[in-house]
Amino acid sequence: MHWNKEMGESASDFEKWLFNSNKHYIRNLLLLYIVGYLLFAILDFHSTAISFNRLFNIRISIGIPALIIALICSYIYKLQSKLRLINASAILIMNLTISLMYAGLSPESNGFYTFFSGLLIALATLGISMSSIAITITYIGLSALSFVAVSFFIHHLHIQDPLLFYKSSSYILVASILFIVAAVVIERFSVKLYKAQKNISQEKDQISSQKDVLENLNETKDRFFTIISHDLRSPFTSLIGYFDILLKSEKKEYKVNKSDIQTIYLHARRTYNLLNNLLNWTKTQLNQYNFDPKRYKVADIFKENQSLYREIALQKEITITHTFPKDQRVYCDKEMITTIVRNLIFNAIKFTKPKGEIFLKATPLSEKEIELAVIDTGIGISTKDINNILHPNIHYTQKGTHNEKGAGIGLIICNDLLKKHNTNLQIESKRNVGSKFFFILPTAPESNN
């Protein structure tokens, strides 16, 4: 039997599926065998010369317990993948006890022919027991062979009544073939149903996944336009306002105060950062980031952002201190981690009061891991807000110490990008004391050994 492992198909899974799909039928069938077997034992005792001791020792002490054990096993979850073998073995034992009872009778005794019909019924039960083809063929063969062997070696029926011997043997052979064919049909039909169910399940999962993607895209689109309409318009309004003032003057040359240039620069920088975050956030939502991790110096990652945040930090007279081991390397996607560090630094500047401090730290935790952290002496965050900050479906935003606005996506981007590194953003904060934003990265790729 060929199983498609990519679709989750396997012999063990098929066995479990078959049992769970037919467990009521299987249990009722076993219960019917137990009751029917007891009734046949009573009939045999009254219709034949078999002693009660022989009847008890063969049927009741061997056949019935095997069927009861099979019924009990059907309620044990761990045995689900073995139940076809267990059930077929119980029925085989039942069949062999019929042959043993048959061996104790002479061909002339009453009830001799009832054992022949009993065996045919037992063979039929194996054929419809939903056991595997290999088990069915083997067990039907053993059952039929045991009956023929008793006729040949014990009763010598081929000598005493050749016609009856060949007739009964032929019936058993034909019946065995028919019941094996029935077993093959049941098995193949069951496998087709199983594979169809797997296909339906996979298609259902795909549809569900596509639905989630479409819903995510729709949410992304709504949030994207919300940010554009509210947060992106504000800095452009300020910039246009400054230029309107300048253009209204009739002078051909303008004297512009440095403070005005700094204000314009800050608005332009924040607008650029917002656009950058919007693009990065959209790429994370659409899974368009190409993850390409390599080993880089920690100093290079921090210094790459230095020129971007230095001027804004100076505006608030914030001191930024770097602390990391010399030549320390980290294994990461540089573009992603640079984006994360930039967002964390701008976030720290935004929520740190003038003349505050920000610390950029890289702390080795072991030979294999390093912690990168941005620590500030800002206004801090409450525990409730920490939970909301990283929730993708909650649009959490707060004004900075200079009423700086934000789109509320910077930290979400950080967390999404860190997930690609199999890590996450962690936050420790205390109101009016400061915050620590940090994450852990490997110092080298994992060894394949």
Characterize this entry briefly.
The chain is 64% helix and 10% strand. The chain is an alpha+beta fold and 449 residues long. A 5-stranded mixed sheet has the order 2-4-5-7-6, with helices on one face. Strands 1-3 form a two-stranded antiparallel ribbon.
How would the blueprint of this fold be written?
Blueprint: H1 11-47, H2 52-73, H3 83-103, H4 112-127, H5 133-154, H6 157-160, H7 162-248, H8 258-285, E1 294-297, H9 298-303, H10 306-315, E2 319-323, E3 329-332, H11 334-350, E4 357-364, E5 369-376, H12 383-389, H13 410-419, E6 426-430, E7 434-442
Parallel strand pairs: 2-4
Antiparallel strand pairs: 1-3, 4-5, 5-7, 6-7
Helix pairs in contact: 1-2, 1-3, 2-3, 3-4, 3-5, 4-5, 4-7, 5-7, 7-8, 8-13, 10-11, 11-13
Description:
It is a single chain. The protein has helices at residues 11-47, 52-73, 83-103, 112-127, 133-154, 157-160, 162-248, 258-285, 298-303, 306-315, 334-350, 383-389, 410-419; strands at 294-297, 319-323, 329-332, 357-364, 369-376, 426-430, 434-442. The chain is of the alpha+beta class. The strands form two sheets. Strands 2-4-5-7-6 form a five-stranded mixed beta sheet, covered by helices on one side. Helix 8 (258-285) packs across helix 13 (410-419). The longest helix has 87 residues, at 162-248. The model has no long low-confidence stretch (mean pLDDT 80).
